[in-house]
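User: Modeling request: complex.
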Amino acid sequence: MTYQEIWTKGLKMLQNAGIDDAEGNVSRLFKRVYGIDAAHFIMHRDEEAPPEKQLEFRLLIERRTKHEPLQYILGNCGFMGWDFLVDPRVLIPRQDTETLVETFLDDVVRARPRETLKIADMCTGSGCVGISVQLGLRQRGYDSQMTLSDISVEALAVARKNAERLGVKPWLVISDMFRHLGRYHAILCNPPYIPHEECDRLMPEVSWHEPRAALDGGPDGLDFYRRIAAEAIDHLLPGPGLYLEIGYDQAKAVATILHDAGFTRI
Ligand code: GLN
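Assistant: Request completed. Predicted assembly structure:
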């Protein structure tokens, strides 16, 4: 078969399965297997493709037709310009979450702390938040002592690999929220915050394949914010404070929870 024939067949399979941006997906998987990007494809499309790779390509396409996220199939995902390993043990880093990291980095730069910041990234998953913070602070000339924590041992294994690959040395702590954590100048957390009932209604890429424990925030999605609000004060040293990602419609509810727990300047 020629490259063109293989490409077209893959594209049809993804289109039939109702995959969004089937073209872009084929192109990424094609590049992974054959090492040919879209521009080179045009030059080589009528050539015979190496037959030994056809099965590999087909298997990847088949995984995608079952709505497995492209990032799990490729095994990596970009976040803050760095490359993170991902697999079904961890939530796929979202671009929205870069806002959490950027906001924190901007605040630190503005405050110009003189001491080494002790920071925790709770519910770290792939480690994308804490590791990017460490790398970002290093780029800006600040040292930090980072703790990455998660209740999932499996997730921490992924975070550890990412830290090694990206050249940072955080502490890794298995902990159900604050349970085994100390005190920090800053705590960042992107907790699970999808209301329980909604978890099954998300797109299949998310609801069938991403770890439920990383998504499900309890009946109203706010369970983890309640726990954080109740316990965070005992784990904070004077410094930047608490940085949370929340759902697009949760600002009022989370602000109230924090206010009632005694937080100010929310
Ligand atoms: N901290 C990770 C992220 O932001 C994982 C978050 C989670 O599992 N809820 O992607």
